[in-house]
Design a protein that fits this description.
CATH topology: Rossmann fold
CATH class: Alpha Beta
Order of helices and strands: EEHEEHEHEHEH
Number of domains: 1
Oligomer: single chain
Distance between the termini: 24 Å
Radius of gyration: 16 Å
CATH architecture: 3-Layer(aba) Sandwich
Structural class: alpha/beta
Length: 205
């Protein structure tokens, strides 16, 4: 799939105000400072579609971007190290949880993980929550340009081992990416394209 058009549609913190359409959605979420905005810009081939910042926690709302006029890329607030109050974090938690539980148009969540670090408890717990709530998701390892091939393989295997220990029957799809050299973007877009085909076939039958 090639992204021919990408435009911002709406930002909000209420599920009821999200676009009222049946077209598929793909949510991107991860810890603050994981490189989410940079990856989104790389996928869409637009430098300033999603706002990047040196300050973690820049994204604080549910942001919908319409891609190729037939699917939504949803940029969700990061979790973990955002410099916001405990009250604000609780608010984020509430509307993120509601989004995942009640947004029926959601086809897949892309959980971004910084490949440079060993498995983080907060990421593993979020994966477990997604699994328990039967929300389809994929793991997107970011910043792969910062490590050599051997280190990348080791860190990915560490995550897989941790998940298998937690009684996962099957490891979700895994993508290795770098916003710097755009590696992995083609694979993610191809995956979304196949999911879109399956989604539209399903609703047309």
């Amino acid at each position: 799939m090639r992204v021919k058009s990408a435009k911002f549609v709406i930002s909000n913190s209420e599920i009821s105000k999200c676009p009222q359409s049946s077209i598929p959605e793909y949510a991107f979420i991860g810890r603050s400072n994981v490189g989410k905005s940079s990856l989104i810009n790389s996928l869409c081939n637009k430098k300033k579609l999603a706002k990047t910042s040196s300050r973690p926690g820049k994204t604080q709302l549910i942001n919908h971007f319409l891609i190729n006029e037939n699917w939504y890329l949803v940029d969700l607030p990061g979790y973990g190290y955002a410099r916001v109050s405990k009250t604000q974090k609780k608010i984020f938690q509430t509307f993120i949880t509601k989004y995942f539980k009640y947004r029926t148009q959601l086809v897949n969540a892309f959980l971004l993980v910084d490949i440079r670090h060993e498995p983080q408890s907060i990421d593993l717990k979020f994966m477990e929550w997604l699994g328990e709530n039967l929300i389809p998701f994929s793991i997107v390892f970011t910043k792969a340009d910062k490590l050599n091939t051997k280190s990348i393989e080791k860190n990915i295997n560490d995550y897989k081992s941790k998940m298998l220990i937690s009684n996962w029957e099957e490891i979700p799809p895994v993508f290795i990416t770098s916003a710097q050299n755009k590696s992995g973007s083609k694979e993610i877009l191809s995956y979304i394209n196949q999911l879109n085909i399956d989604y539209f076939n399903k609703i047309s039958n």
